[in-house]
Amino acid sequence: MKSKVTTKDVEELIETSNRQIREESATFRRYLMEEVEWGDRLICIKGARGTGKTTMMRQRMKSEFGEDSRKALYVSLDDLWFARFDVKGLVRYLYERGWTHVFMDEVHHLGKTWSLTIKNIADQFRNMNIVYSGSSLLQLEKARGDLSRRQSVYTLRGMSFREYLHLEGQGDFPVLRLEEILKNHVEIAESINRKSKVLSCFEEYQKRGYYPFYRESRAKFRERLMDTVNKVLELDYPSIDEVSRETIIKTRKMLMVLASSCPQTPNMSELYRELGTARDQGLKMLNALERAGLLALLDAKGVKLGDLSKPVKIYCDNTSVMHALVPNVDEGVSRETYFYNQVRKDHSVAYTGIGDFVVDGKWTFEVGGRGKGFAQIADIQRSFVVNDDVAVGTGNKIPLWLFGFLY
Q1: What does the pLDDT read at residue 91?
Q2: Which of 208, 275, 291, 348 could connect to 302 by a Cys-Cys bridge, CB 3.0–4.6 Å?
Q3: Are 128 and 101 in contact (CB under 8 A)?
Q4: CA separation (Å) from 149 to 41, 59, 116, 131?
C-alpha cells in the first residue's frame, strides 16, 4: 500500500526537478524538439537508451516554464520516491493545486500495467498536460489500455552526422531531403566542406557520435555504452517483456554473436541450436534486440520483423554500438551500417540481390570505398554508388557522409 502524498513529500520532488532544469544546457537541441506538437495533451517520446530523451524533456521545460516553475514538474519514474508513493497520487496533488504539466521519464518502470496507469491519469485529470518517455522496447500496439486515440507518439533516434557536426562546432546545416542529395550532391558537398572538416569528423562520428553522451567522457565512452547495453538487457527488457534470467543471458549472447558477424544472411536455425532455444523464442529475442536499438534487421521487402519472419540480413543498429561490441570493425560493414542507419528513419530500405540496398522501391545503392564503381549495378536504372573517404562526389557517385544529413 503506497503512502498518501503530502506537501513535504512533493516539495522534495519539486526541488530536485528545479535543480535539474537549472543545470540543463539548452545550447544544442535535437532534431525532434521542433517536430513535437508540444501543445498536445498526452505525448509519448520513445527511444533507445542514451539517445537524449531526458535532456530533450528538460530542455523543453526550461524554455517553456523557466528554471523555478510551479506549473511544470519533471520526474523520473525509476526514482526511489515512487517506491513509497503512487504516481497517480502525485498527479492528483499537483492537479488540485493548479499545476498544468508533468514530464514523466522512464515510464516502463511502472511495470506491465504502465499503459493503464497513463490512461487513467489522462482520463481523470483532463486539464493536465502529460509528456512521458519510455524505452524503445515498449510495444505500444500491444499495451494494456487503449492510448491510440489519446496520445501523440514520437521516436527519438541517435544523433545524425549533421547533428554531430553542429555539436562539434563545425556548422549548423539544414536537414536535406533524399531527392536533394541525389540531384545536387556535388554543390551541397562543396558548400559543406568549405565550412567544416567533414572527413576527419566523419571518422570520429562513426566510433562514438551516435550517442550524445560521448561529450561527457570520450575516454570512457565505450565503458558508458556497454553499461547502457547491460541496462537495456538487465532492467528494461524484463520490465517490459516477461523473460527469465536464462533468456536475458541468451539474448546477450545472441547480440554478441550477431554483432561480430554482421552483416550476414544468418543461419538462424544453427544459432538457435547454439543458444539452446526454440525458434519462436529466438525470434522474439531477435525482435527485442531490434526494438532496443541494438540490432537492425533488413528484409527483402522492407518489412519489419513484426510478423516474426526471417530477416535477410542483420546489422548492428549503428556504427557506434558496433565499434563498442566488435574488437576489429570491418570497414565495409561500417559503411553499410551507417548508410542503413541514417537512411531508414524516413525511408523504406530493403535488401536487393543487385547492389546493397533499394530505397523506397525505386533507388538502388551500392556502398563501398573510394574506388567503388558501377560494375555491379551497371544495368540498373536510378542506381547510385556511395563512396566512403570522398569529400565530394561526381555524377551518380555520392559521398557516404552526406547521407547523414537526412535528419
Answers
A1: 97
A2: 348
A3: yes
A4: 12, 27, 14, 15
- 363-368 and 357-359 as β-strands: parallel, antiparallel, unpaired? antiparallel
Q: Which residue has cell 533468456? A: 247
Query: Which DSSP state fits 264?
Result: B
What is the Cβ-side half-sphere exposure of residue 215, based on CA atoms within 13 angstroms?
12
* Coarse DSSP helix, strand, coil percentages of the chain, rounded to the nearest 5 percent: 50, 15, 35
Per-residue DSSP letter, 392: S
Alpha carbons 138 and 143: distance in angstroms, whole number:
8
**CA distance to 201, 226, 242, 255, per residue, from 48 (Å):** 24, 13, 19, 16
d(CA 217, CA 159): 17
Q: What is the DSSP letter of 380?
A: -
Domains of the chain (ranges; CATH) run 7-156 (3.40.50.300), 163-405 (no CATH)
Cell of 196: 567544416
255-267 pLDDT tens trace: 999 999 888 777 8
**19, 81, 47, 51: CA torsion to nearest 10:** 40
The radius of gyration of the chain's CA atoms, rounded to the nearest angstrom, is 22
- Please report the DSSP string for 152-177 in residue order: EEEEE----HHHHHHHTTS--PPP--
